[in-house]
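A quick word before the example. In earlier lectures we treated sequence and structure as two separate objects. From today on, think of them as two lines of the same record. Here is CoA-binding protein written that way.
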Amino acid sequence: MNHDAYPDNYIRGILNSVKSIAMVGASPVNVRPSYFAFKYLAQRGYDMIPVNPGHVGKELLGKPFVASLSDIGRPIDMIDIFRNSSHIMPVVEEALTLDPLPKVIWMQLGARDDAAAAKAESVGIKVVMNRCPKIEYGRLSSEISWMGVNSRTLSSKRAPVPTQGMRLSLNRMSVGGGDTAASDRAAKNKTEQS
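And the structure line, produced from the sequence above:
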């Protein structure tokens, strides 16, 4: 796998197939990126599990923190690592002791460990590095274009807030990867102006 450029189908396949996500490095502090990602993914229907030994005894959005992956006690589809690169290998090594193994190990933006990725892939685990599942979900579902991002259309109208557990289709095509209603309108307007 080329970890510098993931095909959309690879990312889409992962996000469509996983149901439970253990977020290592999750924080209950509502201004931390891990909090935003945890909340966003939980609102999209993923079963989120916060993992952080410094917050055991606390909850994150009603989910109790666990100290380690082995404390979860049930199968996990994906491990989302919200730690810097120097802490990735120990997390991957712990993940490899789980039974059953997770399907995916995802390293957040700025996090990369090629040796850890190779170790996980050698036992059949899919790996994503230096990407955020929150951003990828928004991009692939075209949800990110609700705000006018990358759609060539800006609106003063506030986008509807998704309800708890709302999950958009990840089979939509973005402006960069195909047509959407916004790109159709932009192309039509460009043709009409010419």
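Notice the following. The two ends are 43 Å apart (CA to CA). We will return to this example when we discuss secondary structure assignment.
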